[in-house]
Amino acid sequence: MAVKVFADAAQALSGLLEDGMTIMSGGFGLCGVPNTLIRAIHDSGVTGLTIISNNAGTDGQGLGLLLESRQVKRMVSSYVGENKTFMRQYLAGELEIEFNPQGTLAERIRAGGAGIPAFFTRTGVGTLIAEGKEERAFDGARTIMETGLVADLAVVHAWRGDTEGNLVYRMTARNFNPPMATAARVTVAEVEELVQPGEIDADHIVTPGIFVKRLIALPPCEKPIEQRTTRPRPQAGA
Predict the structure, then answer these.
(1) ∠206-145-21 over CA atoms, to 5°?
(2) What is the pLDDT of residues 41-53, one digit of tens each?
(3) What is the rounded CA–CA span in Å between residue 192 and residue 161?
(4) CB burial of residue 117 (10 Å; 0-12, 13-18, 19+)
(5) 126-169 pLDDT, tens per residue?
(6) Domain 9-117+149-217 maps to which CATH number in 3.40.1080.10, 3.40.109.10, 3.40.50.300, 3.10.20.600?
């Protein structure tokens, strides 16, 4: 049986990266983002990338690193409003973007992982999203056709994983990571806690190890916060 656990991100991605490839990157905002794997992609120097991700990270964090180094040619995304670098490159015509309604993007990824080449949805009918897409009516409702998405590589972040590649996600990190893990030719995972087979309750496994080809265990690391929102503490005795 092939060894799935690698010493670090660079080794886990060795032989998988090439110019012009399509990469799915999990996460929502900065939660559940495979930051260590993204940094290794950045350090590899590959260019001309198409990135499929709900959002584009922030300046200096997550996919923002790849945008700052101009390694990304095209983004397939839903929400990108937190990244000034993205905005500048897009408005200057230096970055291609395919905007998707968030639910449509999630379903396109899920469909790709399930082997479904296309589906019809009411979302986007009559808007710019529908331009150039096939339209049909079902039960009297107009719908447009969206295609499934498949990538050359998916990089995902999980809370726990075992050495066979079975993954468990925690809270908001269980967002785009699970469907992306199924929708790429090769999936590489980073996990906060690596355990042995059998230590994860089978009922808790979200991504079966059959989908994960390689993984790394993360050292303790700081988790960045996209927008810190606080409120004043109440006065003592109030």
Answers:
(1) 60
(2) 999 999 999 999 9
(3) 8
(4) exposed
(5) 999 999 999 999 999 999 999 999 999 999 999 999 999 999 99
(6) 3.40.1080.10
